[in-house]
Amino acid sequence: MLTQAQPSNRARTGRVIVLDDEAEIRGMLQRFLAGQGFEVRAVRDAAQLDACLERQPYDVLVLDVTMPGEDGLSICRRLRARGNTVPILMMNAPADPLDRVIGLEMGADDYLDKPFVPSELAARIRAMLRRQQFILRTQTLRGEFLPIAQAPVLRFGPFSLDLQREELSKGDMRMPLSFAELRLLCALAATPNRPVSRANLIERARGCGYEANDRSVDVQVLRLRRAMESDACAPRYLRTVWGIGYMLVAETEP
Asked: How far apart are CA 163 and CA 82, in angstroms?
């Protein structure tokens, strides 16, 4: 039996859309998450999802991977390709760890194996919402992470990164990066031209206590390189510092 905690005011602000082709799972998740205070919409396929996303924005997408027709990986890749940055939590049956990596490479922000305890799903959604709310509330990086340049916009090559809005542009065009990619890029931009360890990047981008591993950081960096570098195998801006982590090479004021 699912136990329902008293929803908080913060939880009530979260608009969640769940995509799963199994009606029983959809209904169970919709009832449980609504009982947790979220505003929930459950859909059965990609067509329903697209229709809902066109009508209104959502704070989190909970996306099943294995489905008939267009599967979760394809949906995730398609959404990211057209610039949709809604945080995505993927659900799938236990599989090889490589499946998680593929999901992250497609643009997912988190991954949860089935079967799972519904309270864990709710906790992960709340964590994703807290990270979003933190960004909107501060509109700037915390003092201890401010870039050396102390500039609202950091420039490197044809790119400009607005640290207050957390937006990356190439010339006059805004780059369609995911929420997780932007958070990692801003974490690197906090100390440009200085190497940052993977553990430090996780803390800066996700907050203290967030469970992640070095491989997840490597995947996010690879995705950024593919989006930004002319040659992802010989990066100019997102450099690997062997034995330490990564460094963003950027222009700073003297």
From this structure: 23
Rounded CA-CA distance 71/87 in Å is: 17
Q: CA neighbours within 13 Å on the CB side: how many for 252?
A: 15
Q: Can you spell out the DSSP letters for 168-187?
A: EEETTEE----HHHHHHHHH
> What percentage of the chain has pLDDT greater than the value 90?
25
Amino acid in position 47:
A
Q: Which secondary-structure segment (H or E) carries 214? A: helix 214-228
Residue-wise pLDDT tens digits, 6-25: 333 333 468 999 999 999 99
Phi and psi at residue 205, to the nearest 5°: -80, -35
Q: What is the pTM for the complete model shown?
A: 0.57
At 198, which helix (H) or strand (E)?
Answer: helix 198-206
Per-residue pLDDT averaged across 114-137, rounded? 77
- Residue with the bigger pLDDT between 177 and 142: it is 177
CA distance 228 to 84: 18
Answer yes or no: are the C-beta atoms of 219 and 105 closer than 8 Å. Answer: yes
What does the alpha-carbon distance between residue 119 and residue 32 come to, in Å, rounded to a whole number?
9
Q: Are 189 and 147 in contact (CB under 8 A)?
A: yes
